[in-house]
Amino acid sequence: MKKVSVSLFFLLVSCVMTFAGSIFVEGKYQNKNLYVQNGFAGSGVGFCTYEVLINGQVTTDEINSSAFEIDFSQFAIKPGAEVRVEIKHKDDCTPKVLNPEALKPKATFEPISINVNDQGTIAWSVKGEQGSLPFIIEQYRWNKWINVGEIMGEGTPEKHDYKFQVSPHSGINRFRVKQIGFAGTIKYTKEITFNSTATPLTFALGKDTKEVMLSGISMYEIYDSFGNIIKKGYGKDIDVASFNKGLYYLCFDNQVIDFKKK
Fold this sequence. Notes:
mainly beta, Immunoglobulin-like, 50% strand, elongated
């Protein structure tokens, strides 16, 4: 038992020592280089960094200076491709990557087309993606844009085609697609509209006010009199038995109505 414990101890120490002299930066290539603040080794002899690797390959960057650039062009990496940078340094010092966000995906897509058919299928084509980000499908309902679905983008510059099935409400429907990149940057497609001929839904409140009944299935949201959202979902019969007495606002189909819970 003692031999096993000693072996395990040396294995753990070995793992720590293996990673002690490396900094790793991972992400998607965005056509931008990394910049490193290097400085001298703790001993005062030579500089801190002694080797840089991109996806396991040693770079030819000039690292013997107080600051240097990691140039991705030397490996002909395509925009949006996965990259893993390893900066090996001496154990008595640590270099600093000044712009690690350079490898974070941004919303860079260029819309080519977007349309919606009579069945509520949205189709759009884009190019110029430089990293995989979700496309967020939004619908304008109840005087605001709301998220009705997401599809992960391919993340590469060539043309890509996407589709998403939405659930239209009665009357005029408005849709758009967006991506949110690093640091909250947002990019949108143009807005498209679709006129649904579906019969508008109606609303009824049970006699004991414990249930809200819709004439058909719909996305819904319920707010209290202070504007706080109390319940949301997708359905036809909505249980409100646990609600306190008072005034509430129900958003469903393309309507906003109020009701009193007794």
